[in-house]
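re the bet — no i am not wrong, look at it urself. input seq straight from the record:
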Amino acid sequence: MLKLQSLNVAYGKAQVLRDLSLHVQAGEILCLLGRNGAGKTTTMKAIMGLLPLMSGAVVLDGQTISTLAAHHVPRAGIGYIPQGRRLFGELTVAQNIEIGLMARGSGPDVLEGVLELFPRLRERYHQRAQTLSGGEQQMLATARALCLEPKVLLLDEPTEGLQPSMIEAIRQVIVVMRDRGVAIILVEQRIDAVLSVADRVSFIENGRNLETLDASVLRDDPTILAGHLGV
C-alpha cells in the first residue's frame, strides 16, 4: 500500500531522516514510536510532500508520489491530521468540512458518513471551530481528513491534551477506519493508547528505523519498550 524507501530528509544543513524505510498495508495500523526529536513528525511531513527529499521515494500502490507537489498528495488518497490540528478557527465546522470535501470532489454521501462517525460535529455544525473543545477540534480535524476518502491516514499525536472520553472516541474511529481497509500510520506518545490499537510498531531513533515488531510482542514483553524509549 504505502512504502517509504530509504528516505533522507534535512532541515537546511541538519539531516533528520537517514535512509528511513517503512511500509504499511491496507487495513493495518502502524505506530511510530521514538523519543522527542527522533524524526516521527518529519516522517509524516515527508510523506505529505511538505519537506523535500534529499533522496529516496514515497510509493503509494506502486506509484511514486514523492514527485508530486504537496497540494496533490491529498488528492492521491492520503489524509493527514497534523499535531495541533491546524483548523480554520474563524470558519464553522461545516466550512472546515467543506474544505475537506472539495479536495477530492467528495459528495454528500461522504459528508453523511463522516457525520455518522462524529455525531457531536452534527450538533456543532454551525459553530466556529475556535469555539469547540479540544476533543471536538480533534474530531473536526479527523473528519476533514476522512472527507478525502483516504487510502492512507496519518495521525500525529491525536490524543494530545484530550480527556479520556474523547481519547476513546478518537480511538474507536481509528479502529473503524482500519476495519474499512484504510492504512493508518499513527504517531503517539501514550504507550497504552498505541498498544491498544496497533498491529505493528516501528521504533525510530536519530531518523532511522531501528526495529519493527508486531504489537503483540510488545504487549507480552514491555521491557522492549523500556529498552527503546527509556520508560
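see?? The two ends are 32 Å apart (CA to CA). told u. also The chain is about 40% helix and 25% strand. so pay up
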